[in-house]
Amino acid sequence: MARVSEWDWGRPEELSERMDAFLVDGAACDKLEEVARPPYDRTTLGDLGVTGVEFAAWKSHHPAALASDVVPLRSPDAAAVPGRVYRVDGEALFAALDICEPLPFADGSVDWVYAEHLIEHVSLTAGTAWLTEVRRILAPGGVLRLTTPDLATYVDGYRSGDTFFSRHRGRMRAAGLGPPMPARRAFMFNQLFYLYGHRWLYDYEELAYALVSAGFPDTAIERRAFRDGARPDVAELDRVLRNDESIYVEATVPV
């Protein structure tokens, strides 16, 4: 595979090819052991030591998480069958799940759900349907923590004369994530919409709208900060690399 730094920002299809190759390489593991099949109720998940689900992750750093991604993990001998739970390399748990499909969990079966930079990859309709499913599977008092690129931050960056954009370009370059990003403000704004498979972008009001549409009370929705939340163990999942561009929002199921 060509090095990530070899793509041309002026040719978005090259970035798409690199991302596809990354998914193929990143979804590899040494061993997959099937441990459960759907549907999953609270007792079944509890027996597995699972209290919550982290979406858009092949492996979670939370000790009681079920990691999930639409791209199945694969070992030299097998590939994860969508919906089934696997123990990965003798440690973490994983299930291949598509957020555009009903989730294979019983009502009120988990205490928390976490998703970082996921909801922007589907349409508003699909995102709201997924949030409705998340609301259903959360137990009373359960917490959903969402992070996604903040559209307002990018609008402010465009208007402010590039303060945020220059910092973000420097951060991406320091992390080794590709060649230097073009300094043009229009490029920095457009890439958020048209690269990376993004389908719908959110500010706080739009995210709150989707959450209310999904059944969360508006009084139970709160804007949070990086690694600050109702459950410190879940907020700790926030990645440093994305904290400059992200909005953090939590929604709680009423008791």
UniProtKB/TrEMBL annotation:
Domain of life, source organism: Bacteria
A molecular function (GO) held by this record is: S-adenosylmethionine-dependent methyltransferase activity
Q: Where is the Methyltransferase type domain?
A: 95-144
What Pfam families does UniProt report for this protein, alphabetically? Methyltransf_11
InterPro entries attached to this UniProt entry:
Methyltransf_11, SAM-dependent_MTases_sf
- Name of the protein described by the UniProt record: Methyltransferase type 11 domain-containing protein
Q: Which organism is it from?
A: Phytohabitans houttuyneae
**What are the leading ranks of the lineage?**
Bacteria, Bacillati, Actinomycetota, Actinomycetes, Micromonosporales
